[in-house]
Amino acid sequence: MNYLFAPMTVVGLPVADSPSLFPVRRVYCVGRNYAAHAREMGFDPDREPPFFFCKPNDAQSIVPVPAGQCVRLPYPDQTSNYHHEIELVVAIGKAGKNIAVDHAAAHIAGYAVGLDMTRRDLQMKMREMGRPWEIGKAFDYSAPVGLLHPITRTGEITRGEVVLEVDGVTRQRSDLTHLIWSVNEIIANLSTLFELQPGDLIFTGTPDGVGAVQAGQTMTAHIAGLTPITVAVA
Length: 234
What we know:
By secondary structure, the protein is of the alpha+beta class. The chain contains 5 helices and 18 strands. The strands form 5 sheets. It has a 6-stranded mixed sheet. Strands 6-18-17-13-14 form a 5-stranded mixed sheet, with no helix packed on it. The radius of gyration is 17 Å and the shape is globular.
């Protein structure tokens, strides 16, 4: 088949103890899934069901972070309030629609550490105007993701410390037990809206403590049991 120009290259994430890459199909994100973060953003977490937004799945947005390396992200245009949000990333390995909560784990391929980088000023402006968040969330290089750990090695991850440091100073610290909606509940809910497919990634939400980073600063993101990632802002 001939195309007018070369089609988009599939982004592949490195997989622990494997020469193969995980091909990214779609990227879903859960909004305000930690109670403390919902409150710091001005919302009541006890009254809101899960909601979702998406990031592009191309190489301009997804940034694989190899184990032991520091990846540099360019400070994005059109913002003066560039925020970090550490998140557990869940990789889908089995297709499904209207998945029951009790069966959700069977659709998980693995887990990774990710950052949902955000142009907060643009996001808030769009929110105030009742418009979509894309310019605040779906910009270039907005989704660094670390080494993918297969669930066959980790088992289900339902607890564990979540920590993000900027230049060695802790900004975000929580535990996966503080998720409002569990990973399995997220998968079940999302699968009523979209048919999930192998290659999908789900960013499961960030804890409180989100804040701005500047050019020259370095972020280190840790989730217990997973390979941490280090990202510097250029």
